[in-house]
Amino acid sequence: MTRRSMDSRMSVDRTDVSFQSVTDLALEARSVFDDFDKDKSGHIDAAELGNSLRVFGLNPTMKEIYDMINEVDKNGNGTIEFDEFLAFLKRSYRKPDEIKLDLKKAFRILDINGDGFITREELQKVLTKMGETLTEKEVDEMMEKADKNGDGKIDYEEYVDIMYPIGT
Fold first, then answer.
1. 107 and 44 in one domain?
2. Alpha-carbon span 124 to 145, nearest angstrom
3. Which residues form the signal peptide (predicted)?
C-alpha cells in the first residue's frame, strides 16, 4: 500500500468515525426526545420538559423552563420539535478529547501542590476561593463520595469518575 493510498484510507476512516458519532447522537437524541414527548405529539411542551427534568432530580421554575424552550425553539411556536432538539444537541456535543482536556485542566486547578492528588484541604481551599461556602460535613461528604479507594485523597481517575461518570 502506498503512502498516498494509506493517507486516503485514513481520511476516509476519520470521516466514517465522525459520521458514526453524528449518527449515534441522532439515534440517542430520538430516544431521549421520544421519552420527553409523553403525549407523542411530535413536540415537547413546557409541562413535558419540566416533568422530564424533574425525573433527573432537577426542579426548574416555569421561567427557567420557558427560557430553555426559547433557547432551542427556532420557529417560535413555544415548543421543541425533534429537529430543534437535535440541532441543540449537535451544538452542545463535545468530543471526548475536549472533555478530557477540560477535566485535566480542572484537576490541575484543584491539585494545588501538583502532587497528583486532591486533598480535603485543597478541595475546601479552591471551593472557598470560588465563593462556595460549604460546611465541614459537606466537604467531608464530597470527599467520601469521590475517594473510592479510601486513601483520604482524590486521584485523577477518581476525579474523572465523579465528574464524568460515563467515562472518557
1. no
2. 15
3. none
Question: What mean pLDDT comes out for the span 110-122?
Answer: 96
29-45 as b/e, with b when 16 or more CB fall inside 10 Å? beeebeebbeeeeebbb
Query: Which of 74, 92, 110 is a domain's end point?
Result: 92
Task: Report residue 33 CA to chain centroid gap.
Answer: 17
**For 95-115, what is the mean pLDDT?**
89
Backbone CA torsion sign across 23, 25, 27, 29: negative
Residues 125-161: tens digit of each pLDDT = 998 888 888 889 999 999 999 999 999 999 999 998 8
- Residues 63, 54: Cα–Cα separation, whole Å: 15
